[in-house]
Fold each of these.
Amino acid sequence: MKGFWHDAAEFFPILMSGVALTIVVTIGSLLLSTVLGLIWAMMRVSGIKALSMLSASLINVIRGIPIIVLLFYLYFVMPDLGVTLSALQAAILGLGIAYSAYQAENFRAGIEAIDKGQIEAAQSIGMGWWLTMRRVVLPQAVRIVLPPYGNVMIMMLKDSSQASTITVAELALQGKLIASSTFKNTSVFTLVALMYLTMSIPLILLVRHFEKRAGKK
């Protein structure tokens, strides 16, 4: 145990640089997935058949491609097509696109859970589709989707480790590099696991809080 704490003190500053990149990848991809997911969901519930079918097709395609393959495509294949992305850009874009499909389903479920009578009442007083969504439906849908949204945040934080496959020096890759150079696998990966757990616990507690609030309504 004494050896572990000595190793932790030595490796902690290096791993913290990986934590910083992990947070950047997680926040960037979360924002992107939220925007894209909301767009896909709005298309699904728009009532326009072509948009609904297009959104459903996009979601199915995205969900059918493994995240790691999407990252490889963005980082290694896109340059052949004339679009060069940095490893960090490709990681944020890849994870954001991958999780937008799951975000879209969460948002769609939240929107469809709103009482249709409220929508009809809003439209009866002259509100258009977009105004009804913005003022009546979405504010209520947000409260419904908060618990699953929190779960997505947790999964995205853990899946940010896949960015290491395209050389983003986030926490997992930093741990791997340290372990390969020092051969102190137990100390390094125990510390890496504890750091991921430390970042995840506040999100887990936040999700639990949202679930309790939703359960009281």
Amino acid sequence: MRLVELSFRRGAAVLAAIGIAASMASAPARAQFSLAVSPPRFELSAKPGERLREVLELTHSDVRAGAYKFKTADWSLKPDASVDFSDDLQPASCRPWVAIERRELSITPGRPYRFRFEVAPPADTPPVECRFAVMIEGQQPAAAPGVPIALGARIGVIVYVAVGDVAPVLELAGASVQQVDGRAAPVLRIRNTGNAHGRLAGFLTGTDAGGTALELQASTTPIMAGEMRDIALLATKPGDTETAVAIRFPITISGKLEWGRNGSLPIQQRFVQ
């Protein structure tokens, strides 16, 4: 079966979404049209002139067959970490390198479908991070609980492809206390001077105003190349990384966060509310 070479048109409409953009999730993405998609994100690498092939596993869980449409989209990450998708081809987009298996598909219940896509960077491509999304939309309107009208539902699966020698370079540009999900939290401002996205990983240790020992984990929100982003630190009790706790400020935090293959970011900060 040939893959469909994508073409693009200006001004394509974007449907209202009641599904989710699966860029940050770690579990299979789900939308109201009873579709599970795995994996929810791809982080790949390729050489110029190389054809890279990957597979999405799609599972339709309704009792009836599901009809879906497929396309690609450009995307950007907003300050609140939500994703903006664009059908229009953006400047420097790598979507012309992308081919998908088909534009429309009917999936029978209970039997996963392996949906293929390819990325083929031209042989003369300089080092760059290619970013796009594979968009999956229900062909029939989907009803959401408590919503009196049917809306279009879609899932966006984020794909990163490192072409050549690219990497993030993360550095600390500032620190503050901000409201995060209704609670005061220490926040690190991170600058990425590299040519690929990066994420912080690992745990820091802290002692709050009451002398309570805490562990703090950085949000895994990506920091795009050339951008600066606020990364919140989630406080938990040592040994219980699942339950967030309130911080009594001021708090002193120290340790080291990892990024990329070998990068690390030493942290020694006092946060005052």
Amino acid sequence: MSEHRHGPGEEHGHHHDNHLTDMEARVKALETVLTEKGLIDPAAIDAIVDTYETKVGPRNGARVVAKAWSDPDFADWLRRDATAAIASLGFTGRQGEHMRAVFNTSETHNLIVCTLCSCYPWAVLGLPPVWYKAPPYRSRAVIDPRGVLAEFGLNLPAEKKIRVWDSTAELRYLVVPERPAATDDLGEDALAKLVTRDSMIGTGLALSPEAFR
């Protein structure tokens, strides 16, 4: 899908055992103790994480967006009742019970944040990225959305309005990015490949077909 971009508050590179944050070290220690006591199976945990990272989540959301791009009736349904429209594709579950879809246009760009905690639509976007849960993103996305987007490499025209949506425990959002140009001949499967996780949060745009040539 898309190349990973570091967001506000996210460290560059990957953590290794000798460079764990305090929280990561505590989680690792707890996992070790529970494994030694036979209370958890690391393989089962890895399977759950893999499910949310690769099987549910971004791929599901990409299918929702691709269908909205291809099917005007579905797009209209998604605007009116995102929860039902998304559920019709089989994507329901934890932290995705109540959804609203917001559509990017040539005049408006939408950005999603959760200022109070890290509410995130797992059923359509999978596990939230580290930066989404970080205080710098949660606070600055509201007060300086244009600056935050620039840090993701997304520099929008000054005349384009940026609208920030604050997720809550009761309502979560999905950004429907603008459909890339020169994609009229693409089917839903091909279109879904152009939809990135970041574009469905609002910190990125959909990919152009040239990205796969």
Amino acid sequence: MAMEDGSFDQLERRWMANYEELRSFRATKGKLPLEAGVGSEATLGGWLRNQRRRHKRGRMPAWQADLLQRIPGFVWEPAVGAWWVKLELLRAFLEREGRVPRYRSSDAGERELAAWVHKQRHNFRHGRLRPERAAALRRLPFKIV
């Protein structure tokens, strides 16, 4: 981290500048940057993906990991978190509508949820659905898997 005199080396200064840009983006936009974003958002989203990769490979200093974890909404594996968010959306839909979502709905959100359910069923049939996810889907009020 910091050198004995309290200063940062050039790589650490660059990392801190990116981190501060990330904090600022989150504070002003209310979300984390996406690689699929435009311009500086895409660049910052790529930097964030690289940080997650470094962490996963054990190549990130603890102080950097600690700082990233302080950012509201930050997760190390966003795809894992997104799956559970979809599950909660499905649960709410089932409770509200009393039926499974339909592909032919005029509502885009319902169609997207129907596609997600289809993908989960497909993954289940082909042995590619994690056991904890299958168990969570089985606890829903409708037979999904």
